[in-house]
Amino acid sequence: MACPIARSLEKVGEWWSMLILRDVGRGMTRFDELQQSLGIGSNTLTRRLKALVDQGLLERRKYSQRPLRYAYVLTPVGRDFRPVLRALIKWGNKHAPLPAKRPAGRRSSAPRRAAAGRARRPTTRI
């Protein structure tokens, strides 16, 4: 493929992959931590981790012999993906904000008016 976007998406285009990279970048390295954080099925997580290791974005390191357990860490290629995740976070906060929460007891489905000024957007650190 000649297009760099298409080639990049070949490596990380599946959305679970980006969320896994986000969480590993935050320090979650073990399978059970990732599964709990993401609410992902074990088969899907296993496939995505294998694909990310195969693509060179994650490295699998043994941390326990009995039972056999692995931790996942970002490779230099995976660390180079951090600015992309930060850009997605920034774009998402600007163009796809979380829906406003309804106050307790409120039954109307009409949109709430924001308090004076702009509503605060959640921030995510990587």
Number of helices: 6
Going by CATH, the architecture of the domain at 16-95 would be Orthogonal Bundle
Order of helical and strand elements: HHHHEEHH
Contiguous low-pLDDT stretches (5 residues minimum) are 109-122
What is the CATH C-level name of the domain at 16-95?
Mainly Alpha
Instruction: Kindly report the average pLDDT value.
Output: 85
Structural class: mainly alpha
Query: Could you say which overall geometry the principal axes of the C-alpha atoms support?
Result: globular
Number of strands: 2
The H-level CATH homologous superfamily of the domain at 16-95, spelled out, is: Winged helix-like DNA-binding domain superfamily/Winged helix DNA-binding domain
What is the radius of gyration? Answer: 18 Å
The CATH topology name of the domain at 16-95 reads Arc Repressor Mutant, subunit A
Taken as a percent bin, the fraction of beta residues is 5-15%
Q: For the largest beta sheet, what order do the strands appear in spatially?
A: 1-2
Question: Roughly how much helix do the residues carry, as a percent range?
Answer: 40-55%
Separation of the first and last Cα atoms:
30 Å
Largest sheet: 2 strands, antiparallel
How is this fold's topology laid out?
Blueprint: H1 4-12, H2 15-25, H3 31-38, H4 42-54, E1 58-64, E2 69-74, H5 76-79, H6 82-95
Antiparallel strand pairs: 1-2
Describe this structure in words.
47% of the residues lie in helices and 10% in strands. The protein has 126 residues and is mostly helical. The chain has a domain of 80 residues: Arc Repressor Mutant, subunit A (Orthogonal Bundle), CATH 1.10.10.10. It has a two-stranded antiparallel sheet with strand order 1-2. The longest helix is centred in the C-terminal third of the chain and has 14 residues. The radius of gyration is 18 Å and the shape is globular. The two termini are 30 Å apart.
